[in-house]
Amino acid sequence: MASSLNGKVALITGAASGIGRATAVKLSKLGCALALTDVVEAGLSETAELCYTEKVIVAQLDVSNAEQCDLVVKETVEYFKRLDHVFNCAGINPTAYPILELPEGYFDKLVAVNLKGTYNVTRSTLSHLKEHADCSFVNVSSILGQRPSKEMAAYCATKYAIIGFSKSMALELGPKGIRVNIVAPGFIDTPTNASVKAGPEAVERSAQSVSLGRLGQAEEVANAVAFLMGDEAKYINGSVVEINGGLAY
Ligand code: NAP
User: Fold this and answer.
1) How many domains does the chain have?
2) Pocket of ligand 1 contains residue 30 by CB under 6 Å
3) Residue 4: inside a domain, yes or no?
4) Is it the case that residue 226 has pLDDT exceeding 90?
5) Ligand 1 binding pocket includes 187 (Cβ within 6 Å)
6) Residue 241, CA atoms < 13 Å, CB-side half-sphere
7) What residue range is the signal peptide (predicted)?
8) What's the CA-to-centroid distance between 114 and ligand 1, angstroms?
9) In terms of residue numbers, what domain contains 50?
């Protein structure tokens, strides 16, 4: 069966690594053309090479910079003549800090990238998504946007906020036929996951708290993102899809 995403155009932020990269590969397999963006352009060409399509453009984009968002989105739409799906994936994964030990600027940085960045990209792209034409947004929250964890206050604040922001967006855009959904990954094996950064023992501890007994793979999040963008999810709007292998806490 042909994919409903065949011939569509998707813009991905944070596409140089981890979940953003895996989603680029997945969407390309389904026939999407792609605008791949990231704060550092270096890893984007590697992502582009992994993709199953020639219809890829790459652009440096710091999502916390609203003017850059406008510019990159304008270039994307000029190039592809359309934009169907947006994956707001760029983000800074957490480092554990007691509240009184947060480094200067850390809280502001997380808010600027994880939360305001999603708003900036939404603001720049929204007017380009055609109404009642199966367009959608998928935004990335986290298990830490649903359940708290100590010493993660700043990150939790941004990821809880993403769910509120996205659910409100879904109510506003539903009447225009534009869907907005959220993925909430658990412990995913990417370079900046807190346990991966801490080493094998921390990974093992995280794995033990997962019912399936292992960390998730970026591709397993990508599969959910692609599902949410496609026709098979056309009555799913404002939903949070948990991809965490089953967590007991
Ligand atoms: P990743 O491998 O570090 O990928 C994130 C990408 O976003 C990186 O390439 C990073 O670039 C980029 N980025 C950082 N700041 C940016 C900015 N200002 N503008 C544009 N891009 C920026 O992380 P990941 O694990 O795939 O995470 C992707 C998303 O999933 C994040 O929002 C994260 O919070 C969320 N998430 C991850 C997990 C997990 O366990 N991995 C769990 C729940 C939620 P640099 O590397 O140059 O900083």
Assistant:
1) 1
2) no
3) no
4) yes
5) yes
6) 21
7) none
8) 9
9) 9-243
